[in-house]
Amino acid sequence: MTVPALSTSALPLLEIEGDVLVLGVRKTDEGPQLATEDPALADLQLALEAIGVTGAQDEVRRLPGTHGATESIALVGLGQGEVTANDLRYAAGSAARQLRGIQSLVLGLPTRSADDVLAVLEGAALGAYAYTPYRASSLEATKLPATSIIVATDAPRRRPHRESARGGRGGAQRARPRERTAERHVPGGPRRRGSRPR
Asked: Parallel, antiparallel, or unpaired for β 18-28 and 70-80?
């Protein structure tokens, strides 16, 4: 059983080290659109139609050549219309599932919120999961998913709930009076120390 190590990075997209950099492509009426505004990738945008990429969901196309700090680049379709968290989850899962025989993936998908980041992490974890206990004889010849997946994002992280951050101290203090009250009203229960029988 293999489960990938998941992490996030706020470094510039092309400075994150990995085997494959995954970029999202939107499907539009004007043709495929790269879901990044990095000027260093402008030439790639111009070549999308020539490559044959459409931006349809579940479409993954890996390209040769070095790009930034990764050894190659892959394009994954985000579908048509506004990109939602579900679209990001699906795209991350497709990329992690189809790109095999590598050690690490860098997911450069368009994340604008903590929910988007969580969706990408969930999709990547599901896509890269591999159950291998009963494949010992053929495991060496099997191309497994990436064992390390980095999500490139500068979106704000989700903050813990206010009461959880306090360690539940207030909740414990509020619970004690209720426990004493319940004990006092239990018929036939043990008498409190110093109380007189009625």
From this structure: parallel
The answer to whether residues 115 and 85 touch, using CB atoms and an 8 Å cutoff, is yes
CB 24 within 8 A of CB 6: no
Q: Note the pLDDT tens digit of each residue in 129-185.
A: 865 554 545 445 467 889 999 999 998 866 544 443 344 444 434 444 344 434 444
Closest Cα partner for 151 from 107, 102, 103, 99? 107
Which CATH superfamily includes the segment(s) 5-152? Leucine Aminopeptidase, subunit E, domain 1 (3.40.220.10)
How much is the pTM?
Answer: 0.74
| Boundaries of every domain in the chain | 5-152
**From CA 96, how far away is CA 143, in angstroms rounded?**
12
